[in-house]
Amino acid sequence: KGSLDEFCQVLVDYIAGGHFVLYERIEQGKERRRAVADMAEQFYNRIVDLTNVAIDFNDKYATAGFDETQLDRDLSFLGEALASRIDLEDRLIGELIGPKDPS
What tens digit of pLDDT does each residue of 1-11 get? Predict the structure, then answer.
């Protein structure tokens, strides 16, 4: 169970850090680039839904007495949610940093 506890802590840190870092500037109205703000608005609800998958996983497995028979299924579901979230975050970060220099 120790490794699962550590995993849950890292998961929560990642979810919280990514969410707040990416959206803080936008939520405070400091983002002036319309394309970035539009993309963030477009992705926000989906990222929240994917964040909730991770929070639900943490809530279920960061406590003693969970049902281990569902762990494999839940890890697979979590992995798919994280992959989707990372894809959305990568697209948003790409918009934040702008186009790469083609040289």
Answer: 588 989 999 99
Q: How many angstroms separate the CA atoms of 60 and 31, rounded?
A: 36
Among 49, 50, 46, which residue's Cα sits nearest to residue 78?
50
Stretch 53-67: mean pLDDT: 88
Angle at 88 (CA atoms; ends 84, 90), nearest 5 degrees = 115
Task: Give the DSSP letter of residue 63.
Answer: S
Burial of 12 (0-12, 13-18, 19+ CB in 10 A): middle
Helices (H), ranges, the chain = 2-27, 34-61, 71-97
